[in-house]
């Protein structure tokens, strides 16, 4: 893959880097002896940040192929689940294998059941930070739906749980239209088969410490949002919002069609997101209670 290479005055390769960096800062770090090719682990990340070291690669970037992550198990219909080895994480697969590496149980459930983690209820004994590898290597090709079903069943068997969907009264954020509101700008039709795609991002207030910056992401209140950008329906906008929030988001706008939901990042300046959401997009988000579908995980 295309990349950037740094060569020292001695004509030896110092290292490689991808993308666009502040090249002056990178060269200064090289001159100061602050570069490293050793990627920090979770345990050493705080010390790495405080050392102000700069990470570069010791070899050119190579795009992984799916087969590079094919597990070495003999083909079968068995789903293999085991504690994760190392810090590698990823979702790899083809039409004959599927491998989830370094996933927590809640993250695996989120992916396999297509549900935001805030809508997952786990037993306290399983709601932890342990990471696992999930792998399925098939003797012949199968559809994605069949593979998904096998992975779900393998997860349930390994953790000895049952999975059900229940409607429960819980704390939520309800999204509605403000009175006399101007509708959000509509999204022009896009042929996704011709290269069109959806994108979304949510920015939050900056962490107050290094410890907070490197901690596992936790659900946050809506007041901590600084900006958001999402294309799609109102349902999809709610889905993007609740991915990182501390309660589900319920769509009560009755909006039909696709829109551009964009609120500029406030840039660290104190700014009320709910107020800007109302002023710029005509939307109101209110803490309340509603019955919503929850994915309930129970011990067998």
Helix/strand class: alpha+beta
Tally of discrete structural domains: 3
Q: Approximately how much helix is present in the residues?
A: 10-25%
What separation lies between the terminal Cα atoms? 48 Å
Estimate the strand proportion. Answer: 25-35%
How large is the radius of gyration? 23 Å
Q: Which H/E pattern describes the elements?
A: EEHEHEEEEHEEHEEHEHEEHE
> What topology, given as strand order, has the largest sheet?
5-9-7-6
Instruction: Please state the average pLDDT score.
Output: 87
Describe the protein.
- With 300 residues, the chain is α+β, with helices and mostly antiparallel strands.
- It has 3 domains: 4-55, no CATH class; 66-159, no CATH class; 169-290, no CATH class.
- 21% of the residues lie in helices and 31% in strands.
- It has helices spanning 23-32, 45-51, 105-112, 144-159, 210-214, 234-242, 273-281; strands at 4-7, 13-17, 35-36, 54-55, 79-83, 90-93, 97-104, 120-121, 131-137, 161-177, 200-204, 225-232, 249-251, 259-263, 283-299.
- The protein has a 4-stranded antiparallel sheet. Strands 8-15-10-13 form a 4-stranded mixed sheet.
- It starts with a strand and ends with a strand.
Give me the secondary-structure topology.
Blueprint: E1 4-7, E2 13-17, H1 23-32, E3 35-36, H2 45-51, E4 54-55, E5 79-83, E6 90-93, E7 97-104, H3 105-112, E8 120-121, E9 131-137, H4 144-159, E10 161-177, E11 200-204, H5 210-214, E12 225-232, H6 234-242, E13 249-251, E14 259-263, H7 273-281, E15 283-299
Parallel strand pairs: 3-4, 8-15, 10-13
Antiparallel strand pairs: 1-2, 5-9, 6-7, 7-9, 10-15, 11-12, 12-14
């Amino acid at each position: 893959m295309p990349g950037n290479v740094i060569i020292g005055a001695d004509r030896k390769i110092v290292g490689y880097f991808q993308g666009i960096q502040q090249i002056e800062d990178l060269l200064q770090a090289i001159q100061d002896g602050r570069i490293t090719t050793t990627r920090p682990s979770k345990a050493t990340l705080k010390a790495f940040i405080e050392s102000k070291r700069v990470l570069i690669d010791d070899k050119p970037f190579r795009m992984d192929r799916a087969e590079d992550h094919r597990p070495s198990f003999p083909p079968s219909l068995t789903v293999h689940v085991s504690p994760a080895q190392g810090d590698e994480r990823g979702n790899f697969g083809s039409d004959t294998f599927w491998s989830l590496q370094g996933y927590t149980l809640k993250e695996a459930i989120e992916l396999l059941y297509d549900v935001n983690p805030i809508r997952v209820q786990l037993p306290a004994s399983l709601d932890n930070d342990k990471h696992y590898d999930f792998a399925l290597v098939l003797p012949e090709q199968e559809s994605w739906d069949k593979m998904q079903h096998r992975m779900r069943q393998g997860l349930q068997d390994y953790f000895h749980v049952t999975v059900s969907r229940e409607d429960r009264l819980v704390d939520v954020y309800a999204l509605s239209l403000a009175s006399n509101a101007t509708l959000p700008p509509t999204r022009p039709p896009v042929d996704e088969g011709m290269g069109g795609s959806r994108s979304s991002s949510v920015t939050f207030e900056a962490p107050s410490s290094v410890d907070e910056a490197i901690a596992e992401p936790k659900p946050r209140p809506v007041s901590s949002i600084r900006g958001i950008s999402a294309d799609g329906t109102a349902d999809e906008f709610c889905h993007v919002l609740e991915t990182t929030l501390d309660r589900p988001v319920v769509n009560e706008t009755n909006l039909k069609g696709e829109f551009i939901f964009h609120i500029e990042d406030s840039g660290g300046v104190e700014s009320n997101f709910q107020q800007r959401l109302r002023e710029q997009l005509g939307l109101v988000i209110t803490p309340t209670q509603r019955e919503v579908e929850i994915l309930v995980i129970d011990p067998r």
